[in-house]
């Protein structure tokens, strides 16, 4: 770090930047260089490879039946998982913020487990639980329901990894909803149910949407926790990231690149949507200032 | 009498909270959901790890390949985390202490790796350094192997853990503003002294927080590393990869033994993270996650 | 609507916020609850609203016992210090909210709700802003929306909790005048909480001065200002100077000198003399308060002088014309025109 700060030439920044603090050129320079080397150039390499196919070749590879099948599996399961997470994540955020009960802090801490637990570990653990002879699987086996090695298993894994995104997005906003607004609603004659549906939920809506999008984006891209439990049957339980991996194992770089490009475009569209939601809610409702 | 009683219970309830029975129901649902989704997998890891007894557990960890995997994982984290710390410090210094055009865009770019599927994070390096690329064979001419070797694993790990430190420090340093640094400079400190004696003490807990999360992800990364490692037993298998190999070889108890080490790492991370949040809530700033 | 607060006590955990408070609020009056922070004024307001439940005692709206009713059933209009507007609703939606959440049987038709909301918007002089969001308004405008929203449900009582506390001085003065006008037009029984005595004096029909969970004095602004019944009220309402005196031979004495003020019916012994700094006259007579100027500074149109009286190190403030030549060490003699005597602590 020493070089970053102390050797910053005074002249270089002084006429560019009206600030007495040194180190702008060096820190920004390092940031941009490092970002370019690690993130930007590799992503450009991917884009160049895709572009090399030409629109027709790209379209042909992208609409390959197995590719479409894997994308469908990924998106449908991710949508379901994000849906479940929004419902329970909102409930959990509510309970953690509003109610006091023994063990609250421990549950609050454990919400982050999916961030901290390596995905492969989560994957084998979930498989062990939901396999027909596992703790939970055994409850469903007599009914003829299989969870592991079916799309249901994929949804379970996606619920696991997506939950903290929803809870952690809603929690701070819910804490910010002022007590006074709820009291105002009550003085105006609204009952508790009306206050929750008309006043609290609408103000949580941007956070719920953001949490949904984050959980969805994470679930679509997830690999490690899913492949063990999924069963990986093409067209049924084969997710898109796994198909990328399979194509790579086959040295089919073109196939892998095309799927990756499609997924990236969708992820970036999601990222853009999240930013839009947040900018919109900041402008309109003045959250975060 | 009955109406009187009802009136009294109604009175006792605060106008901005739910009936206790509703509260208990919601707490019950939330806790049950968290128990099944989060706690059960964690329990399963340790349960399975010791399913064949303590002796088998330690025998599995003492395996030559397991040892090599542990060493490799520690080595990768020891390279990737410090590099991302330096980047995080440089980026947050440039972004928080100065005003320049395109700053908001740069912040979005730093978060970019979060929206990239881990498999794709690995794939981009395969495309950049693999057979058929320009760089790969050229470096090989100098005897440098990137793919299926340590450099590739490190690069993929840096990619996926890229934003962790920076996104922790940027809001924190933005929050703290430039007053302290300007004061130090006006008192005659140079940039280097200001950075070490003023800035670092101000952000040390936030920095530790970021390092903690970065490290957990670095040691646990699976998808990106799986793509670039080639999975050469004893050489390029990190702990999560070794878990997968053991699991696929139907050696579940050994897989879970190694997995339990990673789960322990996750638990330690959560405990330290929560301790930091409870103890230094203010000093690690608003915007985690 | 007349409101009666009867022997109300309120405890939070172990903290006693209100000690046995009773207050009659007359129908149609504008009454201020005035006191320093921690005096219990906001707690009293929230008890009337039903946002808090009293530990003991009752609140009556007219002849009905409101303590049996929830906040929703009390039909009160409450205005919060920080507006508490619903930020995801437009101004019009905010104002209509209270009517829209009514049960179908008592809810006016949509067109009627809209008409009433627009009318209120006009009343608070914000016509044309109905489609805006709270975030797009200034603080003063937001508070006016909050008032319109509270008025929309045709409340039995209007309760305002430091309604101008978050606004800057000039807006505050404007809104004060404007609130008085609205009150005179609509005639709602109105209770407002403030810690600003100037605001209370200017705005209210009656004042209720509170301190440490008790009501100190209730009366018109003039009567409270002119005839404070306790040292606290004297000190809290308007400027005041205080001096320890001795009562002897039906006269007041300071440092062994009679100061030319009759003791009235005060008991002989130690006492405290209160007077207003501006309500004094300079005198030549021997029997007066005399002191040495320790500081003297001009404050706008007057000169505020601090005098050291006698040898006891007691300081009092008096106001003189700004062009009075009093400087440090000048000796001045004066007598309060009006004063009040309270027993020693």
Care to give the gist of this entry?
Chain A contains 15 helices and no strands. Chain A has 289 residues and is mainly alpha-helical.
Set down the secondary structure blueprint:
The complex is a heterotrimer of chains A (289), B (289) and C (345).
Chain A: H1 2-6, H2 10-14, H3 24-51, H4 54-62, H5 65-98, H6 104-110, H7 113-116, H8 119-130, H9 137-140, H10 151-176, H11 179-187, H12 192-221, H13 224-230, H14 240-249, H15 253-285
Helix pairs in contact in A: 3-15, 5-10, 5-12, 5-14, 8-10, 8-13, 10-12, 10-13, 11-12, 12-15, 14-15
Chain B: H1 2-12, H2 20-49, H3 53-62, H4 64-97, H5 103-111, H6 118-129, H7 135-141, H8 150-161, H9 163-176, H10 179-186, H11 191-220, H12 223-229, H13 239-248, H14 252-280
Chain C: E1 3-12, E2 15-25, E3 30-34, H1 41-49, E4 56-61, E5 64-65, H2 71-74, E6 76-79, H3 91-100, H4 110-123, H5 139-152, E7 157-161, H6 169-186, E8 189-194, H7 197-203, E9 206-211, E10 214-219, H8 221-226, H9 231-236, E11 241-248, E12 251-254, E13 257-262, E14 269-275, E15 280-282, E16 289-299, E17 302-309, E18 314-321, E19 331-336, E20 340-343
Helix pairs in contact in C: 3-4, 3-5, 4-5
Provide an overview of this structure.
- The complex is a heterotrimer of chains A (289), B (289) and C (345).
- Chain A is an all-alpha fold.
- In chain A, 77% of the residues lie in helices and 0% in strands.
- The longest helix of chain A is centred in the N-terminal third of the chain and has 34 residues, at 65-98.
- Chain A starts with a helix and ends with a helix.
- Chain B is 77% helix and 0% strand.
- Chain B has 14 helices and no strands.
- In chain B, helix 2 packs across helix 14, helix 4 (64-97) crosses helix 13 and helix 6 (118-129) crosses helix 8.
- Chain B is globular, with a radius of gyration of 25 Å.
- Chain C has helices spanning 41-49, 71-74, 91-100, 110-123, 139-152, 169-186, 197-203, 221-226, 231-236; strands spanning 3-12, 15-25, 30-34, 56-61, 64-65, 76-79, 157-161, 189-194, 206-211, 214-219, 241-248, 251-254, 257-262, 269-275, 280-282, 289-299, 302-309, 314-321, 331-336, 340-343.
- The longest helix of chain C has 18 residues, at 169-186.
- The chains are: A mainly alpha (289), B mainly alpha (289), C alpha+beta (345).
- Chains in contact: A-B, A-C, B-C.
- The interface between A and B is large, with 102 and 105 residues.
């Amino acid at each position: 770090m020493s070089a970053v700060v102390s050797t910053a030439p005074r002249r270089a920044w002084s006429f560019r930047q009206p600030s007495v603090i040194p180190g702008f050129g060096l820190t920004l320079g390092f940031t941009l260089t490092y970002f370019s080397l690690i993130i930007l150039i590799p992503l450009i390499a991917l884009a160049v490879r895709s572009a090399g196919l030409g629109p027709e070749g790209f379209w042909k590879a992208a609409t390959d039946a197995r590719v479409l099948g894997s994308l469908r599996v990924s998106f449908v399961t991710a949508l379901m998982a994000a849906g479940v997470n929004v419902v329970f994540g909102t409930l959990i955020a509510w309970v953690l913020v509003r109610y006091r009960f023994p063990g609250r802090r421990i549950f609050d801490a454990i919400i982050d487990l999916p961030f901290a637990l390596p995905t492969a570990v989560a994957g084998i653990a979930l498989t062990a639980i939901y396999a027909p002879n596992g703790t939970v699987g055994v409850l469903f086996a007599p009914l003829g329901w299989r969870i592991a090695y079916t799309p249901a298993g994929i949804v379970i894994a996606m619920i696991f990894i997506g939950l903290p995104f929803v809870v952690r997005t809603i929690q701070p906003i819910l804490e910010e909803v002022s007590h006074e607004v709820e009291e105002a609603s009550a003085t105006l004659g609204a009952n508790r149910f009306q206050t929750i549906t008309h006043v609290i939920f609408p103000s949580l809506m941007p956070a719920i949407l953001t949490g949904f999008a984050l959980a969805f984006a994470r679930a679509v891209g997830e690999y490690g926790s899913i492949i063990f439990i999924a069963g990986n049957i093409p067209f049924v339980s084969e997710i898109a990231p796994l198909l990328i991996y399979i194509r790579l194992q086959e040295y089919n770089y073109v196939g892998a690149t095309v799927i990756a490009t499609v997924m990236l475009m969708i992820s970036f569209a999601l990222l853009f949507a999240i930013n839009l939601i947040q900018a919109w809610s900041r402008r309109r409702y003045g959250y975060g200032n | 009498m009955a109406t009187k009683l009802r009136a009294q219970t109604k009175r006792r309830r605060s106008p901005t909270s739910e009936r206790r029975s509703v509260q208990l129901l919601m707490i019950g649902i939330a806790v049950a959901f968290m128990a099944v989704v989060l706690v059960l997998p964690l329990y399963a890891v340790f349960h399975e790890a010791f399913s064949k007894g303590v002796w088998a557990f330690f025998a599995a960890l003492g395996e030559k390949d397991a040892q090599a995997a542990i060493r490799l994982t520690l080595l990768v984290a020891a390279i990737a985390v410090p590099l991302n710390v330096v980047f995080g410090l440089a980026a947050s210094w440039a972004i928080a202490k100065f005003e320049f055009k395109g700053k908001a865009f740069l912040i979005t770019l730093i978060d970019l790796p979060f929206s990239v599927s881990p498999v794709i994070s690995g794939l981009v390096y395969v495309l950049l350094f693999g057979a058929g690329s320009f760089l790969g064979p050229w470096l090989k001419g100098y005897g440098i192997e990137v793919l299926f070797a340590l450099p590739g694993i490190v690069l993929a790990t840096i990619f996926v853990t890229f934003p962790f430190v920076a996104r922790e420090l940027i809001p924190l340093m933005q929050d703290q503003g430039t007053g302290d640094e300007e004061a130090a400079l006006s008192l005659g400190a140079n940039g280097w002294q200001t950075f070490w004696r003023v800035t670092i003490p101000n952000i040390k807990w936030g920095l530790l927080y970021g390092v903690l999360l970065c490290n957990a992800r670095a040691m646990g990364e699976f998808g990106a590393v799986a793509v670039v490692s080639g999975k050469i037993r004893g050489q390029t298998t990190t702990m999560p990869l070794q878990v997968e190999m053991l699991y696929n070889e139907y050696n579940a108890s050994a897989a879970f033994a190694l997995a339990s080490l990673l789960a322990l790492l996750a638990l330690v991370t959560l405990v330290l993270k929560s301790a930091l949040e409870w103890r230094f809530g203010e000093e690690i700033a608003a915007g985690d996650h | 609507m007349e409101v009666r607060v009867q022997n109300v006590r309120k405890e939070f955990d172990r903290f006693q916020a209100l000690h046995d408070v009773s207050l009659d609020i007359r129908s149609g009056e504008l009454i201020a609850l005035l006191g320093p922070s921690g005096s219990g004024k906001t707690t009293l307001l929230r008890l009337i609203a039903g946002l808090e439940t009293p530990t003991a005692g009752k609140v009556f709206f007219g002849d009905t016992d409101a303590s049996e009713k929830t906040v929703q059933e009390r039909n009160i209009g409450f205005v919060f210090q920080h507006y508490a507007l619903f930020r995801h609703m437009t101004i019009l939606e905010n104002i209509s909210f209270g009517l829209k959440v009514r049960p179908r049987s008592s809810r006016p038709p949509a067109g009627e709700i809209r008409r009433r909301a627009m009318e209120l918007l006009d009343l608070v002089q914000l016509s044309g802003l109905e489609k805006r969001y709270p975030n797009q308004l200034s603080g003063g405008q937001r508070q006016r929306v909050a008032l319109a929203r509270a008025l929309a449900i045709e409340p039995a009582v209007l309760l305002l909790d430091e309604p101008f506390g978050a606004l800057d001085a000039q807006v505050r003065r404007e809104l004060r005048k404007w609130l008085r006008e609205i009150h005179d037009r609509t005639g709602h029984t109105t209770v407002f909480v403030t810690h600003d005595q100037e605001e209370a004096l200017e705005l209210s029909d009656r004042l209720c001065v509170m301190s440490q969970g008790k009501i100190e004095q209730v009366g018109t602004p003039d009567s409270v200002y002119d005839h404070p019944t306790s040292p606290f009220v004297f000190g809290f309402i308007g400027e005041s100077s205080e001096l320890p005196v001795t009562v002897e031979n039906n006269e007041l004495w300071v440092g062994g000198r009679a100061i030319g003020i009759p003791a009235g019916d005060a008991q002989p012994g130690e006492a405290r003399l209160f007077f207003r700094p501006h309500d004094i006259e300079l005198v030549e007579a021997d029997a007066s308060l005399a002191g040495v100027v320790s500081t003297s500074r001009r404050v706008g149109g007057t000169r505020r002088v601090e005098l050291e009286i006698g040898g006891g190190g007691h300081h009092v403030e008096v106001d003189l014309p700004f062009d009075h030549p009093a400087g440090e060490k000048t000796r001045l003699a004066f007598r309060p025109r009006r004063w009040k005597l309270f027993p020693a602590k």
